Amino acid sequence: MTAVKLRYFAWVRERIGTAEEDIELPANLNTVRDLLLWLQARDDGYAEALRHPEVIRVAINQEHVDHKERLEGAREIALFPPMTGG
Amino acid sequence: MTAVKLRYFAWVRERIGTAEEDIELPANLNTVRDLLLWLQARDDGYAEALRHPEVIRVAINQEHVDHKERLEGAREIALFPPMTGG
Amino acid sequence: MGGSTVVPTVRIQQEDFDLAEEVARLSAGGSNIGAVVTFSGLCRDEDGRLSALELEHYPGMAEAEIGRIAEEAIRRWPLTGLTAIHRHGLIVPGENIVVVIAASSHRQAAFEAAAFMMDFLKTRAPFWKREHLIDGTPGPWVDATEADETSTRRW
Amino acid sequence: MGGSTVVPTVRIQQEDFDLAEEVARLSAGGSNIGAVVTFSGLCRDEDGRLSALELEHYPGMAEAEIGRIAEEAIRRWPLTGLTAIHRHGLIVPGENIVVVIAASSHRQAAFEAAAFMMDFLKTRAPFWKREHLIDGTPGPWVDATEADETSTRRW
Q1: Taking CA atoms, which of A55, B21, B64, D1 is between 20 and 30 Å from D82?
Q2: D129 → closest Cβ in B7, B63, B84
Q3: Per-domain residue ranges of chain D
Q4: Strand order across the B63-65 sheet
Q5: Which domains does chain B have, with CATH numbers?
Q6: Cα–Cα nearest to C102, from B85, D94, D38, D109
Q7: Residues forming beta bridges with residue D85, ordered by sequence position
Q8: Chain C: nearest CA to D110, how far in angstroms?
Q9: Which secondary structure element, helix H or strand E, spans residue B57, and what is its range?
Q10: Is A58 an 8 Å CB contact of chain C?
């Protein structure tokens, strides 16, 4: 088990119902994709937020990563919709 | 014979030695090219200014024209080097 | 004189900023700057439909990501200065959302670097816009556009 | 709301101008402006060699020609505003020579229109630069560059 901070933004945050949480990741989660599937199963809010995991953007330690990225070394993992700034 | 105002700018003006002059154009001058050749023959200043006529830019009535343009309707003809503003 | 010594200015802030002041700051002491391009992104009212845009951002990562985009621009173009400022919070129509300022000896470099910065700010900087409607209710989150993704891929 | 109703602002003047003021003037009352791109061309000292640039122009034609270039830009892009100001006379390093401001709902249109304006200002507007050297003597007339011609032909 590894402790990480999860952060959520925009409608991902709204659907999950919290902006951030500290969580113990099970050792069998290897990649971002594994994490998204595991979170989906937690409750209806997560399921709703992550229903289309392919559109979810992910940052590990404040850098963009793709869904194949491994979770080792992650202290902060953020999930959010595609960006619409600028 | 038609009276037109000739205007010169930048190093064309300096070599010819005047900024503008009113001139009677001989009736046998049809195009801008004819005018450049005729001016070249006027004196050493014109010859020096117009030695390489292909680089001289021409405007008739304050619009760019090429050297094949006919002179009919010209009230003001300007000769100048390639522009370097902006 | 190479672009490699240029340190970009990156700021994320709630308060508005002054374009002229930022241009002057960038140009100060640079008598070899020939070209300055600015891009200002403003809040639109969408034909009177919006009272405001709300910009959520990811503090920390927003600065870091825009800094990375700026460093890439400095690597690619011979710039003499580069500034990017992005606001967050509630922004009303007519106000600035973002500005990018690129200075160079060469106009093409300044134009391209500013356009590059904006394309990547749109698609990589962690900001999210939500509409606030003229009747006072929060509207929908703005969708990302395919056009922005396409524009980013040209670089 | 089409670009066809936009009337460009074109000024040829000796005195300097204020970028922020010109941007504010262009943006006034336009709550549907999403993007403003400015290009400022500044006098360089060319590594300390120059004391000034002298800009000669063709009064009357300068306004007319820049007006024609601006009308073409308005035909080509969906602009909500367009300003071009070009100075003449003696201009010292660090001062403005020219500014173009293009406003649009779309950033790409604003970028392209400003770049288009500058390419054509460089090669079609009747202005000629002469260097004034640091020792006080008038230097040579600046040569037109092939790069500027090439840049113009891309449109």
Answers
A1: B64
A2: B84
A3: 3-153
A4: B20-25, B2-8, B76-80, B57-60, B63-65
A5: 2-80 (3.10.20.30)
A6: D38
A7: D11, D99
A8: 9
A9: strand B57-60
A10: no
User: Which amino acid belongs to residue D100?
Assistant: V
Residue D44, token pair as written in the block:
């360089």
The answer to whether D138 contacts chain B (CB < 8 Å) is: no
* CA C102 – CA C23 distance, rounded (Å): 9
Phi-psi region of C101 (alpha: psi -120 to 50; beta: other; left: phi over 0): beta
Single out the residue of D124, B15, D96, A37 nearest to residue C33, CA to CA. D96
For A10-43, write each residue's pLDDT tens digit.
Answer: 999 999 999 999 999 999 999 999 999 999 999 9
In chain B, what residues touch D138 (CB-CB under 8 Å)? Answer: none
Question: What letter does residue C77 receive in the DSSP assignment?
Answer: S
Query: Distance between alpha carbon D69 and the CA centroid of its chain, in Å?
Result: 11
CA D110 to the chain's CA centroid: 14
C5 DSSP 8-state letter = G
Q: Give pLDDT tens digits for A33-75.
A: 999 999 999 999 999 999 999 999 999 999 999 999 999 999 9
Give the whole-angstrom CA distance, residue D36 versus residue D28: 12
| Three-state secondary-structure class, residue A69 | coil
* Answer CATH for D3-153 from 3.90.1170.40, 3.40.630.30, 3.40.50.720, 3.20.20.60: 3.90.1170.40
Q: How far is CA A53 from CA A8, A14, B33, C81, C96, in A?
A: 14, 16, 71, 39, 33
pTM of the entire predicted model: 0.94
